[in-house]
Amino acid sequence: MSEMEGAIRRRVDDAGERWGSTGAVAVVDAMEQYNVEEFRLNRPLLLTKQQAATALAMTYRQISRLMASGELTPVRIGRLVRFTPAELESFVERHSGPPIEAPEWPDRREPLTR
Fold first, then answer.
1. Same structural domain for residues 55 and 31?
2. Gap between the Cα atoms of 14 and 8, Å rounded
3. Are residues 54 and 91 in the same domain?
4. Dist CA 62 CA 46 (whole Å)
5. What is the pLDDT of residues 57-77, one digit of tens each?
6. pLDDT by residue (tens digit) across 1-18?
7. CB atoms within 10 A of CB 82
8. What pTM was estimated for this model as a whole?
9. In angstroms, rounded to a whole number, what is the distance separating the alpha carbons of residues 28 and 32?
10. Do residues 49 and 64 make contact, with C-beta atoms less than 8 angstroms apart?
11. Among residues 19, 27, 54, 79, which one has the fewest Cβ atoms lying within 10 Å of its Cβ?
12. Helix-helix angle 3-19:23-42, to 10 degrees
């Protein structure tokens, strides 16, 4: 049994003692924790342009334009162009702002003035 599996079993046993039959909730919680830790271990250090585009919900071409404008800084290894997850996260933070307020639309019952 791996260390991770042992930790999950201990959490499930602890939850069963504390909450009785609701130990299933603890199983789900433990598995979510396991998935987060597994993701951290398996997270790539560098992402391709296509992976960056997918992560940012953009197109490949938009990523190229952001690189050309200097808004995204890639890591270059020879001819390879890659992005760090931290660069993508900082890009999102730089472009996050307060929500845009929707304009007020005229009441349809009022006649429009020309």
1. no
2. 10
3. yes
4. 19
5. 999 999 999 999 999 999 999
6. 566 566 656 665 665 555
7. 17
8. 0.52
9. 6
10. yes
11. 79
12. 160
